[in-house]
Amino acid sequence: MNWARLFPPSTTYTGPKIPFYFLILIAVVSTVRSLIHMFFPDGGAGVIAGIDVSVQGGANIIAMFGQWGASQLLLALLYWIAILRYRSLTPLMLLVIVVEQLLRLGVGQIKQLVIATPPPGAIGSELILPLAVIALFWSLWSNSKT
């Protein structure tokens, strides 16, 4: 078995630095957010998102937040692999961020949370989406010029 095929030689990113730094910021936020969902006693559902987890089925809400955190951690790890070893994947990772935010906002419209104030993730998606689109196009535009 050749494990070296799993991680071929590293690559460089020749595009502008700001989209790359934006990817680093997203990786940090994604890592922290996923760890909160996985390890906070309520998964962040109550103390951060303001969801009442004391209701019947509250333990299920907490469990779903924890599992969601595990998926978020996997995505964050992919960002870190791109940042640390495969920097040429920066535009692809930015595309993944755009698609993730579009899906989050779309599902949020279909299955709306009924809470007093929007959770940070909902507000964050509205902010991150346009920034990620700009970073993506910036990274692609500049790469095509080199």
How would you sum up this structure, described in words?
The chain has helices spanning 17-39, 58-84, 90-110, 120-145. The chain has 146 residues and is mainly α. The chain has one domain (15-145). The mean pLDDT is 91.
In short:
The chain is mainly alpha-helical.
Helices, strands, pairings?
Layout: H1 17-39, H2 58-84, H3 90-110, H4 120-145
Helix pairs in contact: 1-2, 1-3, 1-4, 3-4
> Overall mean pLDDT score?
91
Q: How much helix is in the residues?
A: 55-70%
User: Which shape, going by the Cα principal axes?
Assistant: globular
Rg result: 17 Å
Could you spell the SSE succession in H and E letters? HHHH
Described by strand count, sense and barrel closure, the largest sheet is: none
| Quantity of strands, as a count | 0
Q: Span from first to last CA?
A: 38 Å
Low-pLDDT stretches: none
In the residues, how many domains can be counted? Answer: 1
Strand residue percentage: under 5%
Number of helices: 4
Structural class, judged by helices and strands?
mainly alpha
